[in-house]
Amino acid sequence: xxxxxxxxxxxxxxxxxxxxxxxxxxxxxxxxxxxxxxxxxxxxxxxxxxxxxxxxxxxxxxxxxxxxxxxxxxxxxxxxxxxxxxxxxxxxxxxxxxxxxxxxxxxxxxxxxxxxxxxxxxxxxxxxxxxxxxxxxxxxxxxxxxxxxxxxxxxxxxxxxxxxxxxxxxxxxxxxxxxxxxxxxxxxxxxxxxxxxxxxxxxxxxxxxxxxx
Length: 213
Hints:
The N and C termini lie far apart (44 Å). With 213 residues, the chain is an alpha/beta fold. α4 links the parallel β3 and β4.
Protein backbone atom coordinates (compact mmCIF):
# COMPACT_ATOMS: atom_id res chain seq x y z
CA UNK A 1 0.00 0.00 0.00
CA UNK A 2 1.37 3.43 -0.85
CA UNK A 3 1.66 6.01 1.93
CA UNK A 4 -1.18 8.03 0.38
CA UNK A 5 -3.41 4.96 0.19
CA UNK A 6 -2.61 4.12 3.80
CA UNK A 7 -3.50 7.63 4.96
CA UNK A 8 -6.82 7.52 3.12
CA UNK A 9 -7.64 4.03 4.38
CA UNK A 10 -7.03 4.70 8.06
CA UNK A 11 -8.26 8.26 8.59
CA UNK A 12 -11.30 10.37 7.90
CA UNK A 13 -11.65 14.04 7.05
CA UNK A 14 -12.28 16.06 10.20
CA UNK A 15 -11.92 19.63 11.44
CA UNK A 16 -9.68 20.33 14.47
CA UNK A 17 -11.70 22.12 17.18
CA UNK A 18 -9.45 25.19 17.32
CA UNK A 19 -9.15 25.62 13.54
CA UNK A 20 -12.48 24.66 11.94
CA UNK A 21 -11.39 26.38 8.74
CA UNK A 22 -9.02 23.49 8.06
CA UNK A 23 -9.92 19.92 7.15
CA UNK A 24 -7.45 17.12 7.77
CA UNK A 25 -7.17 13.36 7.36
CA UNK A 26 -7.25 12.35 11.04
CA UNK A 27 -7.54 9.13 13.02
CA UNK A 28 -10.36 8.75 15.53
CA UNK A 29 -8.18 6.94 18.08
CA UNK A 30 -4.47 6.12 18.33
CA UNK A 31 -4.28 2.39 18.98
CA UNK A 32 -5.88 0.91 15.90
CA UNK A 33 -3.98 3.06 13.42
CA UNK A 34 -0.76 2.54 15.39
CA UNK A 35 -1.08 -1.24 15.07
CA UNK A 36 -1.81 -0.93 11.35
CA UNK A 37 1.11 1.46 10.94
CA UNK A 38 3.50 -0.98 12.62
CA UNK A 39 2.17 -3.75 10.38
CA UNK A 40 2.54 -1.64 7.24
CA UNK A 41 6.11 -0.71 8.13
CA UNK A 42 6.95 -4.25 9.25
CA UNK A 43 8.41 -2.71 12.37
CA UNK A 44 6.90 -3.54 15.78
CA UNK A 45 7.50 -0.65 18.17
CA UNK A 46 7.42 1.96 15.43
CA UNK A 47 6.61 5.48 16.65
CA UNK A 48 3.02 6.67 16.80
CA UNK A 49 1.91 8.04 13.40
CA UNK A 50 2.04 11.64 14.58
CA UNK A 51 0.69 12.90 11.26
CA UNK A 52 -2.72 11.32 11.99
CA UNK A 53 -3.56 13.69 14.86
CA UNK A 54 -4.19 17.41 15.37
CA UNK A 55 -1.87 18.03 18.31
CA UNK A 56 -2.73 20.87 20.68
CA UNK A 57 0.44 22.86 20.05
CA UNK A 58 -0.14 22.75 16.32
CA UNK A 59 -3.77 23.75 16.70
CA UNK A 60 -2.88 26.80 18.78
CA UNK A 61 -0.12 27.84 16.39
CA UNK A 62 -2.37 27.39 13.36
CA UNK A 63 -5.11 29.42 15.10
CA UNK A 64 -2.65 32.20 15.87
CA UNK A 65 -1.38 32.34 12.30
CA UNK A 66 -4.91 32.50 10.91
CA UNK A 67 -5.88 35.24 13.38
CA UNK A 68 -2.66 37.20 12.81
CA UNK A 69 -1.86 36.78 9.11
CA UNK A 70 0.67 39.59 9.28
CA UNK A 71 2.99 37.08 10.97
CA UNK A 72 3.43 35.22 7.69
CA UNK A 73 1.76 37.18 4.87
CA UNK A 74 4.07 37.71 1.90
CA UNK A 75 6.90 35.77 3.57
CA UNK A 76 8.50 32.39 2.99
CA UNK A 77 7.59 29.97 5.78
CA UNK A 78 9.16 26.74 7.01
CA UNK A 79 7.07 24.41 9.20
CA UNK A 80 9.32 21.88 10.94
CA UNK A 81 8.19 18.41 12.09
CA UNK A 82 5.00 19.25 10.23
CA UNK A 83 3.05 16.02 10.85
CA UNK A 84 -0.37 16.52 9.28
CA UNK A 85 0.66 19.82 7.72
CA UNK A 86 -1.96 21.73 9.73
CA UNK A 87 0.32 24.66 10.64
CA UNK A 88 1.75 24.87 7.13
CA UNK A 89 -1.76 24.91 5.68
CA UNK A 90 -2.72 27.73 8.06
CA UNK A 91 0.30 29.72 6.89
CA UNK A 92 -0.67 29.24 3.26
CA UNK A 93 -4.26 30.30 4.03
CA UNK A 94 -2.90 33.39 5.80
CA UNK A 95 -1.11 34.55 2.66
CA UNK A 96 2.45 33.31 2.99
CA UNK A 97 4.44 33.77 -0.20
CA UNK A 98 5.59 30.14 -0.07
CA UNK A 99 5.30 27.40 2.51
CA UNK A 100 7.53 24.38 3.04
CA UNK A 101 6.44 21.60 5.39
CA UNK A 102 9.23 19.28 6.50
CA UNK A 103 8.95 15.87 8.15
CA UNK A 104 11.04 12.72 8.42
CA UNK A 105 8.15 10.32 7.84
CA UNK A 106 7.14 9.60 4.23
CA UNK A 107 3.61 8.90 5.48
CA UNK A 108 3.54 12.42 6.92
CA UNK A 109 4.61 13.75 3.54
CA UNK A 110 1.68 11.91 1.96
CA UNK A 111 -0.69 13.28 4.61
CA UNK A 112 0.59 16.83 4.09
CA UNK A 113 0.07 16.60 0.35
CA UNK A 114 -3.44 15.16 0.74
CA UNK A 115 -4.39 17.73 3.36
CA UNK A 116 -3.04 20.66 1.37
CA UNK A 117 -5.06 19.51 -1.64
CA UNK A 118 -8.24 19.17 0.44
CA UNK A 119 -7.80 22.75 1.65
CA UNK A 120 -6.92 24.11 -1.77
CA UNK A 121 -3.52 25.55 -0.83
CA UNK A 122 0.02 25.10 -2.09
CA UNK A 123 2.45 23.54 0.38
CA UNK A 124 5.80 22.03 -0.60
CA UNK A 125 6.18 18.86 1.46
CA UNK A 126 9.80 17.83 1.87
CA UNK A 127 11.03 14.58 3.40
CA UNK A 128 14.09 14.84 5.57
CA UNK A 129 15.56 16.18 8.77
CA UNK A 130 15.16 19.96 8.61
CA UNK A 131 16.92 20.33 11.95
CA UNK A 132 20.26 19.65 10.28
CA UNK A 133 19.54 22.07 7.45
CA UNK A 134 19.24 25.81 7.03
CA UNK A 135 16.48 28.28 6.31
CA UNK A 136 16.52 27.87 2.53
CA UNK A 137 15.24 31.42 2.20
CA UNK A 138 12.49 31.21 4.83
CA UNK A 139 11.79 34.30 6.91
CA UNK A 140 9.47 32.57 9.38
CA UNK A 141 9.91 29.21 11.10
CA UNK A 142 6.93 27.53 12.76
CA UNK A 143 7.13 24.61 15.20
CA UNK A 144 4.02 23.01 16.68
CA UNK A 145 4.24 20.59 19.62
CA UNK A 146 7.88 19.59 19.12
CA UNK A 147 9.14 19.50 22.73
CA UNK A 148 7.63 16.17 23.75
CA UNK A 149 10.88 14.33 24.55
CA UNK A 150 14.30 15.53 25.65
CA UNK A 151 16.54 14.50 22.71
CA UNK A 152 14.09 16.01 20.22
CA UNK A 153 13.66 19.15 22.35
CA UNK A 154 17.41 19.73 22.51
CA UNK A 155 17.83 19.38 18.76
CA UNK A 156 14.84 21.60 18.02
CA UNK A 157 16.06 24.34 20.33
CA UNK A 158 19.52 24.34 18.76
CA UNK A 159 17.95 24.63 15.31
CA UNK A 160 15.53 27.37 16.32
CA UNK A 161 18.27 29.40 18.00
CA UNK A 162 20.43 29.03 14.91
CA UNK A 163 17.74 30.18 12.47
CA UNK A 164 16.72 33.01 14.81
CA UNK A 165 20.33 34.20 14.82
CA UNK A 166 20.19 34.10 11.01
CA UNK A 167 17.23 36.51 11.07
CA UNK A 168 14.14 34.31 10.90
CA UNK A 169 11.11 34.92 13.08
CA UNK A 170 10.35 31.83 15.19
CA UNK A 171 6.94 30.88 16.59
CA UNK A 172 6.28 27.78 18.70
CA UNK A 173 3.00 26.21 19.82
CA UNK A 174 3.09 24.08 22.97
CA UNK A 175 0.53 22.75 25.50
CA UNK A 176 2.96 22.61 28.42
CA UNK A 177 5.25 19.75 27.46
CA UNK A 178 7.88 18.85 30.04
CA UNK A 179 10.84 19.75 27.86
CA UNK A 180 9.64 23.14 26.62
CA UNK A 181 12.52 25.66 27.16
CA UNK A 182 10.28 28.32 28.74
CA UNK A 183 13.17 30.51 29.89
CA UNK A 184 14.25 30.97 26.27
CA UNK A 185 10.81 31.98 25.01
CA UNK A 186 8.34 34.86 25.23
CA UNK A 187 4.60 34.20 25.43
CA UNK A 188 2.61 35.64 22.54
CA UNK A 189 -0.91 34.22 23.00
CA UNK A 190 -2.83 31.41 24.69
CA UNK A 191 -5.75 29.25 23.56
CA UNK A 192 -8.01 26.60 25.03
CA UNK A 193 -7.59 23.76 22.56
CA UNK A 194 -9.95 20.81 22.20
CA UNK A 195 -8.51 17.40 21.41
CA UNK A 196 -9.20 15.16 18.43
CA UNK A 197 -9.30 11.48 19.36
CA UNK A 198 -8.08 9.83 22.56
CA UNK A 199 -4.63 11.33 22.82
CA UNK A 200 -4.45 13.46 25.92
CA UNK A 201 -5.52 13.20 29.54
CA UNK A 202 -7.86 16.21 29.31
CA UNK A 203 -10.40 17.13 26.63
CA UNK A 204 -9.27 20.78 26.57
CA UNK A 205 -5.74 22.05 27.12
CA UNK A 206 -4.49 25.58 27.71
CA UNK A 207 -1.91 25.95 24.96
CA UNK A 208 0.61 28.74 24.48
CA UNK A 209 2.09 30.32 21.37
CA UNK A 210 5.63 31.41 22.07
CA UNK A 211 8.17 33.58 20.27
CA UNK A 212 11.93 33.05 20.34
CA UNK A 213 13.35 36.56 20.98
